[in-house]
Amino acid sequence: MQANQAVPPDTQTDAQNPPPTQPGASAPATDSNQSNTKPADQPTSPSKQQPSRILGVMPNFRAVSAGVIPPPPTPKQAFVIATKNSFDYSSFIFVGLTSMIAEGSNAHPQLGKGVPGFGRYYWRGFLDKTDGNYLVIFALPTVFDQDERYYAKGQGAFLKRFSYAVTRILITPNYSGHST
Hints:
Layout: E1 53-54, E2 58-59, E3 63-64, H1 75-86, H2 89-104, H3 114-144, E4 150-151, H4 158-167
Parallel strand pairs: 3-4
Antiparallel strand pairs: 1-2
């Protein structure tokens, strides 16, 4: 879970809420041979935490786990997320692949062929991706008080979760939590 996400009281982990000890009782042992079973009175997380990468490659820094309602990001936090998205290793790979395809198909003949042409495609593609990230993740949400993060549905039938995901293209919460 990211540091800027608030944790609802019913989803806190054992490390955040250690079980109370009774007076005179010794502290619980923490050796590695303990079983991983939880007593019935301890809360369990309603859903899994969102992974930080999709398919292990693409950054997923803006998704929010189901059931978690974090506070609105500050402009500094939004700027950091835009920077992480823009300069992640996968960004360089993605821009390289799209530049290679564009150069190979001669999409813009004026940029040339070969290594110099690829370089021209690459820096233009990287600049386009980076300024897009800063506009979509930092500048526009900050100016219009919109929360651009994706809030996962978490549970339900596939069709219900799919339709929810499709509607999030046009519907996004503002900083006060109302959908717009």
